[in-house]
Design a protein that fits this description.
mainly alpha, membrane
Length: 155
């Protein structure tokens, strides 16, 4: 060939024009022995697995028929336990969101963080609540005296 390229050497078992159609008998024997060495143990394991499965099925079938009703209730108990764990996880998540909501609602004020903001907010809410209770008590007292009250209509 021109250009200095190397010509590819073919193995001795292949001739130039035949390609893969001709193999030496030695290669065929080696391939057969290798396939038997690999496939033989696999077939043996497959047969052992099949026979073990059939034997265990024959042994366990009567036991399954005897204990079937009991296994049904065990399955229901297992499902109830899983449902309980799911409810527990949901309540845990709800509790974490509630703590986050409380932290954000009390901690967002300008009262100096969580505790300072909480104190200020409780004071303000307490003032409103005390005024509401005072008006409510006056309204109830005036109704007890026979007077009609505006405070009761506002509630």
């Amino acid at each position: 060939m021109e250009g200095g390229g190397k010509q590819q050497q073919l193995p001795a078992s292949f001739s130039e024009g035949e390609g893969l159609t001709k193999m030496s008998p030695k290669t065929v024997v080696y391939a057969s022995v290798t396939s038997i060495a690999i496939a033989g143990p696999l077939l043996a394991m497959m047969g052992f697995t099949l026979s073990a499965t059939v034997i265990l099925l024959l042994i366990s079938s009567p036991l399954l028929l005897l204990f079937g009703p009991l296994l049904f209730f065990v399955g229901l108990l297992f499902a109830a336990a899983l449902a309980g764990f799911a409810v527990s996880a949901a309540l845990c998540l709800a509790g974490m969101f509630a703590f986050r909501w409380v932290y954000k609602s009390f901690g967002s004020g300008d009262g100096g963080g969580l505790v300072g903001g909480m104190v200020e907010k409780v004071k303000e809410e307490g003032k409103d609540w005390a005024g509401f209770l005072r008006n409510k008590a006056r309204a109830i007292g005036s109704v007890a005296d026979g007077e009609e009250s505006r405070g009761l209509q506002d509630c």
